Amino acid sequence: MATSKTQGQTEVLIVEDSPTQAEQLRHLLEMHGYLVVSASNGFEAMELAESRRPALVVTDIVMPEMDGYELCRRLKSQESSREIPVVLLTSAMDGCGLPDDGGRRRRAARGSAP
User: Fold this and answer.
1) Which long-range contacts (CB under 8 A, 24 or more apart) does 74-82 make?
2) What is the pLDDT of residues 33-45, one digit of tens each?
3) How much is the pTM?
4) pLDDT grade for 100, boundaries at 50, 70 and 90
5) Topology (CATH) of 11-91+101-109
6) In what order do the strands lie in the sheet with 11-15?
7) Which residue ranges make up each domain of the chain?
């Protein structure tokens, strides 16, 4: 859901597949004067980043279709979005207190990560 820019406000793009989490982030950022644009998946976020050029992208890590790591890689590979800072966050935790990445760290440690 895109929102028109208001003069003087810094725009932040939230990428979150959970409507509840997205609304919590929106509320927190708007309370501090940020203009918030939201996307529910990485593909929508790529389109919004290209068209809106937000000052910051805050993305969930664990999402279907395109996870936050892949979104970050794609944003950084595009000339138009390379300079946009990206914050990765998640509420999913593994047994070690680290974000649950679907076993990606374990596969990487064994040398079998994609």
Assistant:
1) 74/42, 74/46, 75/46, 75/49, 78/49, 78/50, 80/49, 80/50, 80/53, 81/46, 81/49, 81/50, 81/53
2) 999 999 999 999 9
3) 0.76
4) low
5) Rossmann fold (3.40.50)
6) 35-39, 11-15, 56-60, 86-89
7) 11-91+101-109
